[in-house]
Amino acid sequence: MHRTLKGDTTKPPSASLRAQQSRFDNFRYVFNNERPHEGLNNQVPASLYHPSSVRLPRKLPDFTYPKSLLLRRVNNSGDISGHKNRVFIREVFRFEELAFELITPGFYRVFFRDMEIGEFNANELRFRAARRVVRVCR
User: Fold this and answer.
1) Confidence at residue 138, expressed as pLDDT on a 0 to 100 scale
2) What are phi and psi of 136, to 5 degrees?
3) 7 DSSP 8-state letter
């Protein structure tokens, strides 16, 4: 798909961003609505797509962490700050508040709401993401 996209839309590149975007939009329409796909038994993707009936909230409901946890807000770059140092967590948590549970001196479990997302080593200033996100009942 990427080779076809590149060949159909960038060789040669369009003279303006607007014209280039128009080529991308046209490719997407043809790819999804007109071009049969072998992997879909020669059907077009649009014939199989059904929008989800699940509506996601525009804003997450408020969440209150237990008072025993240390709270840090993630900045625009995905970092947390503390003691004149910054540690990258993940950009997906920008502007969100994370909770840190002290396990041993300098070592914390890190939570986003009721999900354990990783571990933080304050001595090495290192965050290690969990291999599997675990929902924790508190």
Assistant:
1) 57
2) -115, 130
3) H
Select from 71, 67, 78 the least CA-distant residue to 111.
Answer: 71
1 sits in which H/E element: none
Residues 39, 40, 45, 48: is their CA dihedral positive or negative?
negative
Nearest to 93 by CA among 110, 106, 109: 110
Entry pTM = 0.61
The type of residue at 72 is R
The residues spanned by each domain of the chain are: 2-48, 70-135
User: How much is the average pLDDT of 25-32?
Assistant: 95
- Kindly report the three-state secondary structure assignment for every residue of 16-62: CHHHHHHHHHHHHHHHHHCCCEHHHCCECHHHHCCCCCCCCCCCCCC
Buried-exposed string 101-135: b where 16+ CB fall within 10 A, e elsewhere:
beeeeeebbbbbbeebbbbbebeeeebeeeeeeee
